[in-house]
Amino acid sequence: MNQSLHLWLIPLLPFAGFLLNGILGSRMPKWLVSAIGLLAPFLSFALVLNAYALTSISAASCAGCGPVAAVVLPYIETCPLPWFAIGSLHVDFSFVLDQLSLVMLLVVTGVGFLIHIYSVGYMAHEEGYARYFSFLNLFLFFMTTLVLAGNVLVMFVGWEGVGLASYLLIGFWFQKQSAAAAGKKAFIVNRIGDFGFLIGIFLLLASFGTLTFSEISAKLATNPATNPALTGGVLTVICLCLLLGATGKSAQLPLYVWLPDAMEGPTPVSALIHAATMVTAGVYMIARTHFLFDRAPIALTTVAIVGAATALFAATIGLAQNDIKRVLAYSTISQLGYMFLACGVAAYSAAIFHLVTHAFFKALLFLAAGSVIHAMGGEQDMRKMGGLRKKLPVTFWTMTVAVFTIAGFPPLAAFFSKDAILYAAFVRGTGGKILWFVGLLTAMLTALYMFRLWYMTFFGELRTADTHPHESPWSMRAPLVILALLSICGGWIGIESLSSYLAPSVGLHPAVSSTLHLELILTVVAVLVALEGWLIADKYYRRKTERPAQLAAAMPAGYNLLANKYYVDEMYDAVLVKPLFAVSRYVLGWIVDTGILGGIAWLLAGIASLTGMILQRWQSGNLRSYAAWLAAAATAVLLFVLLAQGAIPMAEPLTRSLHFTGAGH
Amino acid sequence: MHLILFFLFAGFCLAGAINLLLQTHPINSALSLIVVMTSLAVLYLLLGAEFLAIAQIIVYAGAVMVLFTFVVMLLNAGREERTLGSRAAGRIGFPAVVVFLAVLATIILRAQGLASAHLGQGLNAAPGIGSAAQDTSNLALLSQVLFHELLLPFELTSVLILIAILGAVAIARREGSERTAEK
Amino acid sequence: MSFLQHGVPLSWYLLLSAVLFSLGVVGFLIKRNIITVFMSIELMLNAVNLSFVAFAYQWHAVKGQIFVFFVMMVAAAEAAVGLAIIIAVFRVRATLAVDRIDLMKL
User: Fold this and answer.
1) Alpha carbon distance A485, A473 (integer Å)
2) Rounded-to-integer distance, Cα A124 and Cα C69, Å
3) Could you report the predicted ipTM of this complex, rounded to two decimals?
4) Do residues A18 and A135 lie in contact, with contact meaning Cβ atoms separated by under 8 Å?
5) N or C: at which end does chain B have fewer Cβ atoms within 10 angstroms?
6) How far does CA A414 lie from the centroid of its chain?
């Protein structure tokens, strides 16, 4: 007997918050806006916790304990009204809760709620306070829809919706030209990925005739042998298309260019959307459709290669950035690359594990950076910071926890998850070893640039003269502390228990039963590499702080390449954007719009005007002329009627033709 | 007898109509029209419509044409001048009328089943109608229908004429009479 | 004199009516005095009246003659109003030439 989990409330409460704050927000006092803005995610989180409690009681019920009134996963809720039914395709609004979506929801609503609390303090002095909270709630609505989706179309609704919310929030300070442009860039690049996603959906529909995840999975499970078309071939194409969508949303090569620019938005937005939740939607989607990827080895390999390449690529760029948020943005891209790498070696549980720990420490990093920026009065350039550790103690200690976590030091969270990924890559054959090496190199670079950030921000002397950094209000400090605690103990759940928990939804983690020696060696190597990165950062950014400038001057080409992000944006601009603008302006603007459409309009107007001018001369006012035309017309009508009736004997052929054309009675 | 009368008065009609076209002074045209009206009244008599013949003379020849003559005299209309004219009237109007007349003439001449009018026989002239019906005069027949079935249109006609009178008075009234009244 | 005993074929009446009507139209087209034009209109109406009476004789329908009666009434009213209009126009324009009165605004 299944209790109702009221899944439909989880997205709908934030949606209600969006409507209330959006429509009435400007007329409500600030405390009311905050209350509504916080209540919705809190209630959603409470519902998720409730669902977790109900389902884990069921899981923990042992033989002999007796049946406990609880809920069995997967739990499906379908709206009684169907969405549409065309031919044999029947699509519902259905929400599915299974282990994977439960874990994801815990992260989304939990971290989301913490960031909402943080926003109360961070955005306290903003003009569009109500607008901010309504958009944030809108994002939560779409994200939860995406996670809970039971079929591809509902997921796509959430997918597009988070893109919309991202655009609205990136361009929150829309009066700033760069912010508006960044919002557009994010949406457009996302759209390119979504095109791939759509093609994938079409192919799914064509191959399976249904869009529900469980049905597709069942169809694949039952007849892989009898229907060879369902292995290889079509599946690879579908998976590659889905991968394109995932690279757009999760900022992987080649569609990552929007994420650094998205730092124009407020810092809590960067924390929530571009670190913890939205960008992980791509990983979630791949994990959700793992049954497709498992049967398309080529696509899987592509995922792994994209992930590893992106991780290394972004880490190298992060080394040369001076804006604190840009460093974190590239760090996000890099860590997402790790998650893709994990998916690519079919270690979906490891990817989800890293997703969870990444949410904790990356959100913490962004929020702490926000605290620093808030203290520095809006300054984001690290070269102007320094020595903040005495002035911002809470921020400093929480950020320290986050930096050590991301570097992968035990016993902090990312150590366990990153380790699981690297191990899974290593045991995957010779290609896997190459991927492992790339991951290792990236780990060192990660440690390097993160400690660089740590030293430049908090150590040394304050490099700007006239700022008075002060600690943030408690509404900003409390989430930092909570996230720091989560970063510390978040990894203690361990990959084995997580993967066995997630097994019903994503399949077993490969080679869970390992040879202890190999795993230990790999772990030690990873920690040593991270230590090496810390030592290098220590040398260049704490002790000999003049050396980085010397190195940059010594290799100007290399440094410029990194500092300018490999000129990828400029390349895209020259290859794609400018030609499109040219086509748009010259072909579509001049030829089609002005020439063809304008010409047609001009022609129509000209015809009307010309006809008017000609007919005007007919209206002379002369009575006799009118009378003459009247007589002529009357005669014509008389002739026509009589001919049609055949009353005029001499006009037989004409009459016959009139009869043929159906004239007359 | 009937034929002779017909030819005579049809000839008067045509002559009057053609004269109307040929005269330049409107008073001559008016007088020609009176000839046409009167000839038509006789033709109505030949067709057994006695009441209409009298009505034609009283209303048309006696009232309407007199009105025309009054207006001609009032406005002191003179001979027609040669004005610009209308090209359309000549080039389109004339052929249209000619074609019109030709078509109608063809149809009329080829129509079958048209009776022959005999003098003195009105509506009652038909085989099969009983002798009782022969005693009813044209006037009685007319008034039977007019005052039974068509009473409403008859009354409305009187309203129409009233309106026409009012309209004519309102339109033709001299505006200056108000100004002289103010003085 | 059997020839004289014959009645007049009705088609001759109708023909006369058609000719009178055409003469009326021609008069409308070629006359330059507006009063004469109006008289041509009266001629046209009379021609139609003749046609109605002829057909009333043909079908022994007294309603044809009643229609002529109504046409006469309407024509009389129309003549009255029309001539009043002509007088009003003459007062402003001081001309009776139909070609000179070609604007809606007097």
Assistant:
1) 19
2) 95
3) 0.90
4) yes
5) C
6) 22
